[in-house]
């Protein structure tokens, strides 16, 4: 039997460079509208590949989103 060639799925980032590195800013829970851009329609945190954020800022971003949810600045789930 011949082996089937599996297609590799390549997810291209929506943004070429990290928006926080370009603007030289750091994600903050005070900027709720900025944090909301990195959530899906079901209020889940987007992956690094999908959002285009670098590793350093993705860790900070996810921590800030969790803090904002705790303080009820962001919704935990969409209704």
UniProtKB/TrEMBL annotation:
One family name in Pfam for this protein: Ribosomal_S18
Presence of keyword Ribonucleoprotein: yes
Gene Ontology terms describing biological process: translation
Domain of life: Bacteria
InterPro entries the UniProt entry points to: Ribosomal_bS18, Ribosomal_bS18_sf
Keywords for the protein's UniProt record, in alphabetical order: Ribonucleoprotein, Ribosomal protein, RNA-binding, rRNA-binding
Record-level GO cellular component terms: cytosolic small ribosomal subunit
GO molecular function, a single term: small ribosomal subunit rRNA binding
NCBIfam families in the cross-refs: S18
Known role: Binds as a heterodimer with protein bS6 to the central domain of the 16S rRNA, where it helps stabilize the platform of the 30S subunit.
Record's subunit section: Part of the 30S ribosomal subunit. Forms a tight heterodimer with protein bS6.
UniProt record similarity statement: Belongs to the bacterial ribosomal protein bS18 family.
Cross-referenced PANTHER family: 30S RIBOSOMAL PROTEIN S18, SMALL RIBOSOMAL SUBUNIT PROTEIN BS18M
Protein name: Small ribosomal subunit protein bS18
């Amino acid at each position: 039997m011949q082996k089937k060639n599996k297609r590799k799925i390549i997810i291209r980032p929506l943004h070429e460079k990290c928006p926080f590195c370009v603007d030289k800013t750091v994600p903050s829970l005070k900027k709720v509208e900025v944090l909301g851009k990195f959530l899906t329609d079901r209020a889940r945190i987007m992956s690094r590949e999908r959002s285009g954020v670098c590793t350093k800022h993705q860790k900070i971003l996810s921590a800030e989103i969790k803090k904002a949810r705790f303080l009820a600045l962001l919704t935990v789930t969409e209704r």
